[in-house]
UniProtKB/TrEMBL annotation:
Transmembrane segments: 169-193, 306-328, 348-369, 398-417
Compartment annotation: Cell membrane; Membrane
One Pfam family it belongs to: Peptidase_M50
SMART domains: PDZ
Organism of derivation: Macrococcus brunensis
Chain's gene name: rseP
Protein's name according to its UniProt entry: Zinc metalloprotease
Keyword line: Hydrolase, Membrane, Metal-binding, Metalloprotease, Protease, Transmembrane, Transmembrane helix, Zinc
SUPFAM superfamilies named among the record's database cross-references: PDZ domain-like
GO molecular function, one term: metalloendopeptidase activity
Length: 426
């Protein structure tokens, strides 16, 4: 149960912040946003404020901001369908009525032949009373009436596609940007709670059953020398642990000098296509609260460190594809993220928040990859428009984005199946 709650918390936080970034900049640009959704599938909660419907959906696999003119809308009318319309004194359509839950007066019925609620903003068909073919334009403020609600039809100047490249870019980039800002806030907050690591060679947390633990080192021990070599900073210890041999640590504890024999443990890790090794004793630096500004500095550099690490991992991923060493074990889908979140949650709320910060950076970077259907792929279309002063051909854009969505769906299915086999059948 703790794992499920932790996963919902982390997933909800990351997706909400990401989509809120899109929503905030879209609204600042004057883009109409009919829906802000967390999750996919059937609605389990909805709340409408102004022109935006805020929903929580059943499947925790993403979220979206539906922006007018972004290609996510579907025309609810089909040829041959009979609908009711209401017009103003200028003859413009103000309401397209798709249900009978509202009592409108002076309405007309129309058998639809053609309609466009995005570019042409018109509805055309046969008047049910006169049997004449008519064509009406939409008023600047027009609505669909369906499911007992009014859904505004976006005029051209409030559609995403009709905005200039810069507002489009900001709207698309804002999602990943807000993920990076969330990570920054999390890491700064953790630093205020737990302190920031000192650069002095003072031992802080010691991992249980680690070489340092077995050798009798304790928290607040100050390392003075290793094998007779002076140690000035915590990071100076690493280069002295070059092999698995026993090293003599001269430490200071409560004003007394002691000697401890420590045998480092070999740790292996992969970098690109090579397996590298290092030796560690299982200690972390001492955490302090001495400097008010230190948490801000720590949070900034921790975020940059996470970004660099994930960029490196993404580079290794693409490198493995070209070299033929790719495996779906290199990826994690919702199932894998859930299982890892469950493990981290068992370590406490601070570990879970740190994990959320790392995932937030990961989500931001992955969404910036130049893959159609992701923010990065759509940003490329905006850059093309800014350079050539014209948008990408609409049909070509739809084909490319559809292909990208199919590719991502296939990858998601394969990764999820691989996660299920790895975590439940091994």
């Amino acid at each position: 149960m703790i794992g499920i709650i932790a996963f919902i918390f982390v997933f909800g936080l990351l997706v909400t912040v990401h989509e809120f970034g899109h929503l905030y900049f879209a609204k600042r640009a004057g883009i109409m946003c009919p829906e802000f959704a967390i999750g996919m599938g059937p609605k389990i909660f909805s709340y409408k404020k102004n022109e935006t419907l805020y929903t929580i959906r059943m499947l925790p696999v993403g979220g979206y901001v539906m922006m007018a003119g972004s290609g996510m809308e579907q025309n609810p009318l089909t040829a041959g369908q009979t609908v009711s319309i209401k017009r103003n004194t200028a003859g413009e359509v103000t309401h397209v009525i798709l249900d009978d839950q509202h009592q409108f007066r002076q309405i007309e019925q129309l058998e639809v032949e053609d309609s466009d609620f995005e570019d042409g903003l018109f509805i055309e068909g046969i008047d049910s009373y006169t049997n004449e073919r008519v064509r009406y334009t939409l008023a600047d403020e027009a609505y669909f009436v369906r499911e007992g609600d009014l859904v505004q039809i976006a005029p051209r100047h409030r559609q995403f596609k009709n905005k200039k490249p810069w507002p489009k870019f900001l709207t698309l980039f804002a999602g990943p940007l807000f993920n990076f800002l969330l990570a920054l806030v999390i890491f700064i907050g953790l630093a205020f709670v737990s302190g920031t690591p000192t650069d002095k060679p003072i031992i802080g947390e010691i991992l249980k059953d680690s070489p340092a633990d077995k050798a009798g080192l304790v928290m607040k021990d100050k390392v003075l020398e290793i094998d007779g070599q002076k140690i000035d900073k915590f990071e100076d210890m690493g280069p002295h642990l070059k092999d698995g041999e026993t090293h003599e640590f001269l430490i200071e504890r409560d004003g007394q000098k002691l000697t401890k024999s420590v045998t480092p443990k070999k740790m292996e890790y992969r970098e690109k296509t090579k397996t590298l090794k290092k030796y560690a004793i299982g200690v972390n630096p001492m955490m302090t609260h001495d400097n008010f500004l230190a948490p801000f500095k720590y949070g900034f550099f921790k975020t940059i460190e996470m970004m660099s690490l994930i960029f490196m991992l993404v580079g290794q991923l693409f490198s493995s594809i070209f070299t033929g060493h790719f495996s779906f074990d290199m990826l994690n889908g919702p199932v894998g993220i859930y299982k890892n979140t469950e493990k981290v949650a068992s370590l406490g709320i601070l570990s879970l928040l740190s994990w959320a910060g790392m995932l937030s950076v990961n989500l931001g970077i992955m969404n910036l990859l130049p893959i159609p259907a992701l923010d990065g792929g759509r940003i490329l279309f905006v850059i093309y428009e800014a350079i050539f002063r014209k948008p990408v051909n609409k049909k070509a854009e739809v084909v490319i984005i559809t292909a990208g969505a199919v590719f991502l769906f296939f990858v998601m299915i394969m990764v999820t199946w691989n996660d299920i086999q790895r975590y439940f059948f091994n």
